[in-house]
Amino acid sequence: MNSSRKNSSVWQKKSTGAFLMILGCLLILSVILRVSFYRFEYNEKFTTVDYGRFNYFSYFTVQSNLFAAFYCVLAALSMFGVKKLKSLQKPAVGLFVTTYVIIAGIVYCSGFPMGLTPPLVWDTAYHRLLNSTQVLHHMVNPVALLVFWLKQGTEPVIKKRILPAVGIYPFVYSLFCIVRGAFFKPTFYAYPFYNPYFILDVIAKNKDVSPVWGYAAMLPLLIFGISVFICMAAVLLAVHNRQAKNNSKTGGRTV
After folding, report:
1. Longest Cα–Cα distance in the chain
2. Which of 116, 150, 112, 133 lies closest to 235 in space, CA to CA?
3. Distance CA 1, CA 171 (A)
């Protein structure tokens, strides 16, 4: 690594380390507060069963944001002298984190016009805590990590062969959600597209159809969903690699 690249890299700026540490700690704190002050509120459309405070960790958004939180904190520590964590500075690692939180944010926000996402309410202290966390996880963090991703243009290019690996975690998570909803009580579906009855209600409304067809219809949706993650990662990778190749200080190296 030559001195000119070292000075231009976002990973060499202490302000970046401070930003990552603050963002990571804020995300962790938001989860701790959300779980600590959990309160069940019956809602005939969105929440009719109390699954307990720790069911919060069943959501992809929460898991991906925790993944991002630990990534930010540990990456910040790598910038403050913890050499064993230097591997987290590789753009390939950031590609996974950024992809997951962006998709989580897009899915959440797209649910508003379709009536699938509970509206944000700010009338009580508890609702302000709850919805501040929602905004942080689904809007602020995805944008913050996207901006950080775009700042890493001086880093080496990423090999395209890692793209299929981006779909592994969403695939395993999807299988877990489908199996949990099908075989465990009380029945819980983290998202409606894992619910065969919801799918049947969309494609065969008011018809007496076996739920097996709901699972059958879920297969192409699952394939589509995994492809969305890979496509998003491909876009981020393409943007990064173009930046890296256009930056004469990187020499177009790969990682």
Report:
1. 69
2. 150
3. 37
Q: What is the pLDDT of residues 63-78, one digit of tens each?
A: 999 999 999 999 999 9
- Across the chain, the runs of DSSP E, i.e. the strands, are none
The structure tokens listed for 208 are 């007496």
pTM for the full model? 0.90
- 130-188 tens-digit pLDDT: 999 999 999 999 999 999 999 998 999 999 999 999 999 999 999 999 999 999 999 99
Q: Which residues contact 116 (CB under 8 A, 6 or more apart)?
A: 192
Contacts of 127 (CB under 8 A, 6+ apart): 121
Listed residue (252, 200, 233, 235) closest to 98, CA to CA = 233
Helix or strand (DSSP H, E) at 25: helix 14-36
CA-to-CA distance for 75 and 3, rounded, in angstroms? 21
DSSP 254: B
What is the pLDDT at residue 2? 44
pLDDT of 158 reads 96
Percentage above 70 pLDDT, the chain: 94
- Confidence band, pLDDT 50/70/90 cuts, at residue 189: very high
The radius of gyration of the chain's CA atoms, rounded to the nearest angstrom, is 20
